[in-house]
Amino acid sequence: MTPTIAPIGEGPTVYLIHFDVPYAHARHYTGWTAGDLDGRLAEHAAGRGARLMAVIADAGIAWTLARTWQGTRTRERQLKRQGGASRRCPICRAQARAADHTRASSDTFGTGRR
After folding, report:
1. pLDDT at residue 109 above 80?
2. Based on the structure, what is the number of domains in the chain?
3. For residues 112 and 114, what is the distance between their CA atoms, to the nearest angstrom?
4. How far apart are CA 40 and CA 34, in angstroms?
């Protein structure tokens, strides 16, 4: 099932933020807003709102809005309980594919193995 992508800034939105550098064990933040996604992201950038995002801002770690879904706080909680944010993160999936491709290339070429 492919989730519906929410238009940015319209209606209740669940969002996934990807950290450019992991902070301890955290590589992502999942949050929600009732309607003003741009405003909520500005709060995160200023180090206000969620505690994890404040710590990320204090540490100087850059982040990217990776994905959005239409949904309320209930959907946010559901996604958090399921875990596996990196599986839902298009940035992590692209990095994993690139790493797999690099491994496959290095295993195949120049080793005499197929």
Report:
1. no
2. 1
3. 7
4. 9
User: Residue 29's closest CA among 9, 8, 44, 11?
Assistant: 44
Mean pLDDT of 37-66: 95
Q: Is 2 part of a structural domain of the chain? A: no
* pLDDT grade for 83, boundaries at 50, 70 and 90: very high
Decide if 26 contacts 19 (C-beta within 8 A): yes
Q: Is 100 a domain residue? A: no
Mean pLDDT confidence for 63-74: 96
Kindly state whether residue 98 falls inside one of the protein's structural domains: no
Instruction: Tell me if 35 is assigned to some domain.
Output: yes
Burial 91-109 (b: 16+ CB within 10 A, else e): bbeeeeeeeeeeeeeeeee
Domain of residue 17 covers 13-83
Q: Give the β-pairing of 26-33 and 63-70.
A: unpaired
- If you average pLDDT over every residue of the chain, what do you get? 85
